[in-house]
């Protein structure tokens, strides 16, 4: 009897101790803001980029400059203390970030200017993440929307990639998010020590851009990327290396010269069928991916609704599905193609199905009408070029404007 009691007592005492410890940590976390200034920090936000920086990116397709604010976002400074304009948060991948174009050429900034020119006082926050995936968009929304308090959330879902890359969170991301959720003040204090004081106070800091890079710095950057490219090639498995070696000489030369996106070549040699997966919506593979995407879109919508904001889902056209030049260039760098890529509704249908009851917009047909325009996408980098960003912003503008006006005048527009 005593032995059985000991077997029950020991685990019970351990659970009680753990519970008491968790309670003490939680109480300490709640008390911290009364004693210390807590920096603005979340795990997802910290992964977006270095704060208050200027980056120069150079490739065979572009030479662009990127500025980040004190939150590490590619965006002008944002006041967390108050907002005097209708605030839209746009979440997405490198297409939303504006990879390859200058700050003012990104569709986020163009859309903001176009709406402002119509007398709509709007502020759009660029939450584009290079190399991001839908589960990471959802984490970002859950952690950052309470800070930004958007009036409208837009999820810019990339055709093909965002469906294919929909899946579960990594163990590391889960742990970081749960720790931050349980004790956000303590977690932020321990990890956000380098966060500028202006962010903690919610007061935008004056922007003092660094001087442009010298020719020596640009040469060093190219050399550094070239070295990364060479090391990546050396790590290719035999099948990847065989695919790479079969590419045209121009592509191989630009790659080793540090003038091509290393990540893109890793994709094309590792998953050459990446963009052909999108066409069989009924396959078990795609059904699972669409289910995951639906889960993350619902999570984003929930985070937005907690701030009183509706959520819109917009399909972002990818080159091989809308542009004949981009389709050929995708094949030049190693991606496979199938018949009907420039006409099939499947890439949009997958996103629309995942969106469920959320408002959904596709502008694929508008870009397909300019399929012969070689200036919409970069030749070998795959992303939207400046002219493509301008066209995309123009096409989504009426849809966004309608939603903004409905939010700003709910009674007049018949919404509750």
**Relative helix content:** 40-55%
Strand content: 5-15%
Shape: globular
Helix-strand topology string: HHEEEHHEHEHHHHHHHHHEHHHEHH
Rg measurement, Å: 24 Å
Number of strands: 7
Strand line-up across the major sheet = 4-3-5-6-7
User: How would you sum up the major sheet?
Assistant: 5 strands, parallel
Secondary structure tally, helices: 19
* Poorly predicted ranges: 196-206
Which structural class best describes the helix and strand composition? Answer: alpha/beta
Instruction: Give the N-to-C terminal Cα separation.
Output: 65 Å
Mean pLDDT: 89
Task: List the defining traits of the structure above.
alpha/beta; globular; 19 helices; two-stranded antiparallel ribbon; 5-stranded parallel β-sheet; 52% helix; 416 residues
Give a description of the structure:
This protein has 416 residues and is α/β, with parallel strands linked by helices. The chain has 19 helices and seven strands. It has a five-stranded parallel sheet, sandwiched between helices. A two-stranded antiparallel sheet has the order 1-2. A hairpin with a 4-residue loop joins strand 1 and strand 2. Helix 7 crosses helix 8. About 3% of the residues have low confidence.
């Amino acid at each position: 009897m005593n032995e059985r009691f000991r077997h029950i007592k020991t685990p019970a005492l351990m659970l009680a101790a753990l519970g008491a410890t968790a309670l003490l940590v939680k109480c300490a976390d709640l008390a911290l803001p009364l004693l210390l200034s807590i920096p603005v920090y979340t795990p997802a936000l910290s992964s977006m980029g270095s704060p208050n920086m200027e980056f120069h990116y150079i490739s065979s397709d572009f030479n662009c400059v990127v500025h980040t604010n004190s939150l590490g976002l590619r965006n002008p400074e944002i006041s967390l203390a108050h907002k005097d304009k209708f605030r839209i948060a746009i979440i997405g991948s490198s297409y939303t970030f504006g990879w390859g174009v200058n700050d003012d050429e990104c569709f986020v900034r163009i859309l903001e200017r176009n709406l402002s020119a119509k007398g709509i006082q709007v502020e759009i926050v660029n939450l584009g993440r290079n190399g991001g995936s839908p589960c990471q968009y959802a984490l970002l929304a859950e952690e950052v929307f309470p800070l930004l308090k958007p009036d409208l959330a837009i999820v810019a879902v990339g055709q093909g990639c965002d469906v294919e890359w929909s899946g579960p969170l990594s163990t590391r991301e889960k742990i970081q998010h749960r720790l931050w959720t349980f004790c956000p003040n303590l977690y932020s204090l321990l990890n956000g020590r380098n966060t500028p004081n202006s962010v903690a106070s919610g007061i935008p800091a004056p922007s003092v851009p660094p001087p442009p890079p010298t020719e020596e710095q640009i040469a060093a950057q190219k050399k550094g990327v070239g070295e990364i490219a060479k090391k990546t090639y050396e790590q290719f498995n035999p099948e990847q290396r065989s695919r790479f070696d079969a590419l045209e000489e121009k592509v191989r030369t630009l790659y080793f010269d540090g003038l091509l996106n290393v990540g893109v070549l890793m994709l094309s040699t590792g998953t050459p069928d990446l963009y052909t997966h999108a066409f069989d919506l009924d396959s078990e593979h795609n059904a699972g991916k669409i289910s995951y995407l639906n889960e993350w879109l619902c999570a984003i919508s929930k985070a937005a609704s907690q701030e009183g904001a509706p959520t819109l889902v917009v399909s972002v056209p990818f080159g091989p599905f809308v542009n004949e030049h981009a389709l050929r260039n995708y094949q030049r760098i190693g991606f496979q193609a199938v018949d009907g890529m420039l006409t099939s509704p499947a890439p949009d249908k997958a996103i629309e199905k995942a969106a469920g009851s959320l408002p959904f917009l596709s502008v694929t047909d508008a870009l397909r009408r300019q399929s012969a325009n070689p200036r919409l996408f970069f030749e070998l980098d795959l992303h939207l070029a400046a002219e493509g960003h301008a066209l995309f912003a123009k096409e989504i503008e009426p849809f966004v404007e309608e939603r903004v006006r409905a939010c700003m005048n709910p009674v007049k527009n018949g919404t509750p």
